[in-house]
Amino acid sequence: MIKKLTVKAFWDSEANVWVAESDDVPGLITEANTMEKLIDKLHSLIPELLQENSILQEQDIQEIPFLLYSERMETLRCG
């Protein structure tokens, strides 16, 4: 089994999308307008990129655990 991967997501308020990237998955950068859609994309992109970078062979894929850390800053006006 592969080690637990770390994926970081942040809200891009100018583009109105979540952006995800990871130092553990070379080439991973993707975006989606909801967190659920972003997670769906990660489920397909992570195995693909790990295979493309020869980190994982298709026959080795059973489970790929990953931690998704997200950050979103908001500003509100009072009064």
CATH architecture grouping: 2-Layer Sandwich
Give the CATH level 1 class: Alpha Beta
What sequence of helices (H) and strands (E) makes up the elements? EEEHE
Q: CATH superfamily assignment?
A: TTHA1013-like
Largest sheet: 4 strands, mixed
Topology:
Layout: E1 5-12, E2 17-21, E3 29-32, H1 35-52, E4 66-71
Parallel strand pairs: 1-4
Antiparallel strand pairs: 1-2, 2-3
How would you characterize this protein structure?
β1 (5-12) and β2 form a beta hairpin. The mean pLDDT is 93. The protein has one helix at residues 35-52; strands at 5-12, 17-21, 29-32, 66-71. The protein has one domain: TTHA1013-like (TTHA1013/TTHA0281-like), CATH 3.30.2390. Strands 3-2-1-4 form a 4-stranded mixed sheet, with helices on one face. By secondary structure, the chain is an alpha+beta fold. The chain has 1 helix and 4 strands.
Label this structure with key terms.
79 residues; alpha+beta; TTHA1013/TTHA0281-like; 1 helix; 4 strands; elongated
Quick gist of this model?
By secondary structure, this protein is an alpha+beta fold. Helix content is 23%, strand content 29%.
